[in-house]
Design a protein that fits this description.
The protein has 235 residues and is mostly helical. It has two domains: 137 residues, Up-down Bundle (Methane Monooxygenase Hydroxylase, Chain G, domain 1); 69 residues, Ribosomal Protein L9, domain 1 (3-Layer(aba) Sandwich). It has seven helices and five strands. The chain has a three-stranded antiparallel β-sheet with strand order 4-1-5. A two-stranded antiparallel sheet has the order 2-3. Helix 3 crosses helix 4. The protein is elongated and about 70 Å long. The relative contact order is 0.07. About 3% of the residues have low confidence.
Length: 235
């Protein structure tokens, strides 16, 4: 990647955060901000994994790991500040009926968030506050929270759990493996010899291919479960 193609560095990200922190209004970001962040994180991840594969010194690996942690912290703080500003904008629209709200600084995902919480705030305000003023007991929770939100969320969680189970592979480590970073910036390890873990299939296959782990079959899992239960009974 050419130098003039690089859009995000730690310094750029810090400047974005500082501007968001020091100004009351939501600050405009490039429409490609999320994609640029993902690209930046993946580049950092690739550098760290390359140094891990080359058995770089622990000091160097620790330095890079700390850099990644600082980047994650900065992103969380930036998100928190933008989130608070968007919530305040939604409150203003609902409480004082301020229909003209400038949403031009919002990213597409943030605009969806703004529209959704505005809708929810307006609904609850009408169904609770207005009914109380009219001396009516609010009766929205069972129909709204359960029917509109709870069931879809439960179904989504169950669906994600099923997908997650299908994309994981259980392995046993046949050698000690130091801490490493996955494609989505997850931190894995360290793992000791004979330790078992359920990891994303792609990562598990790489470890197996490199001779650092072996797959545990369903039969082996069942046998291990029986052994664990027997040990619990004995203890």
């Amino acid at each position: 990647m050419a130098a003039n193609d690089i859009k995000i560095t730690y310094e750029v990200l810090f400047d974005i955060f500082r501007r968001e922190k020091n100004r009351e209004e939501l600050q405009k970001l490039d429409n490609t901000f999320y994609i640029d962040i993902i690209t930046y994180l993946r580049e950092k991840d690739a550098i760290l994994n390359d140094k891990i594969s080359k058995n770089e010194s622990k000091e160097e690996l620790k330095k890079l790991t700390i850099q990644l942690e600082n980047i994650h912290k900065l992103l969380r703080e930036l998100y928190d500040r933008r989130e608070r500003k968007i919530i305040v904008m939604a409150l203003n629209k609902v409480r004082i009926h301020q229909n003209i709200i400038n949403t031009s600084a919002m990213l597409a995902e943030e605009k969806l968030f703004f529209d959704k919480i505005t809708e929810d705030m307006r609904y609850f305000r009408v169904e609770i506050l207005e009914k109380l003023i009219q001396q009516q007991k609010p009766a929205l929770i069972p129909c709204y929270a359960a029917d509109k939100h709870q069931k879809p969320i439960e179904q989504e969680v169950q669906s994600k759990e099923i997908r997650l189970e299908k994309t994981l592979k259980t392995i046993r480590f046949i050698t000690t493996v130091p801490k490493f970073v996955g494609e989505e910036m997850e931190i894995y390890g360290p793992y000791q010899e004979n330790e078992t873990a359920s990891l994303p299939t792609k990562i598990a296959d790489i470890l197996i291919k490199k001779g650092r782990a072996e797959e545990i079959t369903d039969d082996q899992k069942q046998q291990q479960t029986i052994v664990n239960e027997d040990q619990q009974l004995v203890s």
